[in-house]
Structure formats: C-alpha cells, structure tokens
Amino acid sequence: MTSSIQKQKLFLSFPHYAVVGASTDQSKFGTKVLKWYIQRDKSVTPVHPSNDELEGIKTIRSLADLPNPTETSVSIITPAKITIGLLKQIEELSIPAVWCQPGATDVACVQFIKDNGMSDRVLFEGECILRDGDGVLQAML
C-alpha cells in the first residue's frame, strides 16, 4: 500500500493542477487552496460551474474540460455528496492523482475509492495541502 507521503509526492509531481470547490468567498478553504497554488507559481485551473474567473484565472465548467487530464492533479474541496460524482469523473478521465481536503469525503466516497482501486492515488485520510504541501515540496527538492 502506498503511504500518505508517497501519495502527496505523486500528487505534487504533476505539471498541472485543478481545484474544485473554490469560489469568490475568500474565507472558504477552496479559495485558500486555489491561492496556495497561485502563490507557489503552479499551473492551476479552477473548476466552477458558473463563475467565469476566480482569483484572476479563467475557470472551466467541469473536469471533462481539462486540456490535459492525465497530467493534472485535482484538489477537491466540496461536500461529500458532490465529491462522489467527481471521483467517478476522475476515474473516467484517468486523472492520475487526487487530494481530497478534510471534510470532502464520507463513507460512500471512501468505499468508491477502495472499490475502484484508487487508494494508491487519492489522498482522503485527513491530509491537508495547506498544512502539508510546503513540507512535501521541500522534501522533493
């Protein structure tokens, strides 16, 4: 089984990132995660169903609109009832790595991850990119 640190390094090794769950609300963790990527000069695309732009970056409407899904790691900061549908799309699009922020999964999401052999590429056990990301990036240097 792949360790959490190995999955975090895998996640941060891809050239592109997408954030699902960011909004115009600066107090929300989705926006904080989007800003984390921006502040580190990462190639990041916000995914939002109705806003055309977040934090000065053009959004896409869904993960299916990603230009390079197999080269994109996806951060999920959504309620679990939305996350489960995203996980299905991620599996269909062969997205290589996923970071579900704390609170984004429930029992059904975890079961889907395990049943579909995604445990080695999905972070879902309380890892937080805002807390853990910089340490992992430093360890990768």
Secondary structure elements and pairings:
Layout: H1 4-11, E1 16-20, H2 29-39, E2 43-47, E3 53-54, E4 57-58, E5 72-76, H3 80-93, E6 97-100, H4 107-115, E7 122-123, H5 129-139
Parallel strand pairs: 1-2, 1-5, 5-6, 6-7
Antiparallel strand pairs: 3-4
Helix pairs in contact: 3-4
Note the total helix count. 5
| Ends apart, CA distance between termini | 24 Å
In what order do the strands lie side by side in the largest sheet? Answer: 2-1-5-6-7
Share of helix, binned: 25-40%
Taking all Cα atoms into account, the compactness measure Rg is: 14 Å
Strand content: 15-25%
Coarse structural class: alpha/beta
The sequence of SSEs as H and E is HEHEEEEHEHEH
- How many DSSP-defined strands? 7
Instruction: Give the biggest beta sheet.
Output: 5 strands, parallel
What is the arithmetic mean of pLDDT?
Answer: 97
Shape: globular
Low-confidence stretches: none
Summarize the structure.
This protein is an alpha/beta fold and 141 residues long. It is built from five helices and seven strands, in the order H-E-H-E-E-E-E-H-E-H-E-H.
Describe the fold and architecture:
The chain has helices at residues 4-11, 29-39, 80-93, 107-115, 129-139; strands spanning 16-20, 43-47, 53-54, 57-58, 72-76, 97-100, 122-123. The protein is 38% helix and 18% strand. The mean pLDDT is 97. The protein is built from 5 helices and 7 strands. It is α/β, with parallel strands linked by helices.
